[in-house]
Automatic annotation (TrEMBL):
Any single biological process term in GO: signal transduction
Protein name in the entry: Sensor domain-containing phosphodiesterase
Places the protein is found: Cell membrane
Species: Lysobacter silvisoli
Top-level division of the source organism's lineage: Bacteria
Domain EAL: 24-278
Entire protein: shown range: 434 to 711 of 711
Cellular component GO terms, alphabetical: plasma membrane
Keywords associated with the record: Cell membrane, Membrane, Transmembrane, Transmembrane helix
Length: 278
């Protein structure tokens, strides 16, 4: 009996696995032409300065509207793009579009206001390809966006492994004026040691810390410690996933520099973001 059930179980799982693999291959195939078919677009989530509440920039987030499946989560398709190597064409397209949009923002803002930055996520594979400084330079040159208005967000996984290569690349990028942020900070085990070797301008505290900052004294202690540590190294701190006024208040009180989250503003399409500015 048990043996039969076991065998069925095995079959069931292997079928489920086959289906998962099949779905990935399918997605990869469809993702290949998605940009040219206009199915991919960027949304922008505003970033605010906690000190005076001013909007200072926005993070570009990629969306895929699949003709049959509707919105596919970035956690799914970015991974497909990364594994398949598609990110090496998609990444530069995203970067260029984000720079173009950021140039448009400066035109609708009053002349006296400080320019907004655009923050673009860069995947591990893009960093490893080594071509990133050239791609970035070309985008800035062609769009006319000032280097200091472009921020690149990297995760710890992007710098793990080859830290010498990563820190050389980041140093090259930063020497042109582009800012580099470490995304999802605090989720890896070696965040602190990376900061010693990898030069960055700022860290984004992962939203899992922010989620419980009002209820869990440990999360508050860690968040406060990250802020203090970053400031002692002279780098900026961004909190992500601010969903409540209370979280905003406590982050502000602890001296966090910047914040983003649903309470402050959801990601919106490029046109809607322009309206928000105008
Ligand atoms: P991330 O860079 O950490 O982006 C923040 C994610 O948190 C976004 O999810 C955003 O929509 C979501 N978020 C913002 N505020 C809140 C909040 O208050 N509460 C909650 N629960 N979530 C909030 P999204 O857009 O689904 O993106 C997921 C991840 O996919 C991103 O995480 C990033 O790692 C990756 N990604 C998105 N666009 C790109 C891209 O153009 N290139 C690359 N390489 N990765 C991207
Ligand atoms: Mg990010
Ligand atoms: Mg993040
Ligand atoms: Mg994340």
């Amino acid at each position: 009996q048990a043996k039969v059930a076991g065998k069925n179980c095995y079959r069931f799982y292997s079928r489920a696995m086959d289906q998962a693999v099949e779905r990935r291959v399918h997605l990869e195939h469809e993702l290949r032409g998605a940009w040219d078919r206009g199915e991919l677009s960027l949304v922008y989530q505003p970033v605010y300065r906690l000190g005076d509440g001013a909007m200072v920039g926005a993070e570009a987030l990629l969306r895929w509207r699949h003709p049959e499946q509707g919105l596919v989560a970035p956690s799914v398709f970015i991974d497909v793009a990364e594994q398949s190597g598609l990110i090496e064409t998609l990444g530069p397209q995203v970067l260029r579009a984000a720079c173009q949009d950021a140039v448009r923002w400066q035109h609708v803002r009053p002349a006296a206001s400080e320019p907004l930055f655009v923050s673009v996520n860069v995947s591990p594979r893009q960093l490893r390809s080594g071509d990133l400084p050239n791609v970035v330079a070309a985008c800035l040159h062609d769009t006319g966006l000032a280097a200091h208005n472009l921020h690149l967000e990297l995760t710890e996984t992007a710098v793990i492994g080859d830290e010498i290569h990563a820190s050389n690349l980041l140093a090259r990028l930063r020497s042109t004026g582009v800012k580099v942020w470490l995304d999802d900070f605090g989720t890896g085990f070696s965040g602190l040691s990376h900061l010693r070797r990898v030069p960055v301008d700022g860290v984004k505290i992962d939203r899992s810390f922010i989620a419980d900052v009002l209820r869990d004294p440990d999360d508050l202690a860690l968040t406060t410690a990250i802020i203090a540590m970053a400031h002692s190294l002279g780098i900026t701190v961004v909190a992500e996933g601010v969903e409540k006024e209370g979280q905003y208040a406590v982050l502000r009180e602890r001296g966090c520099d910047l914040a983003q989250g649903y309470w402050l503003g959801h990601p919106v399409g490029a046109d809607e973001f322009m309206t928000l500015l105008g």
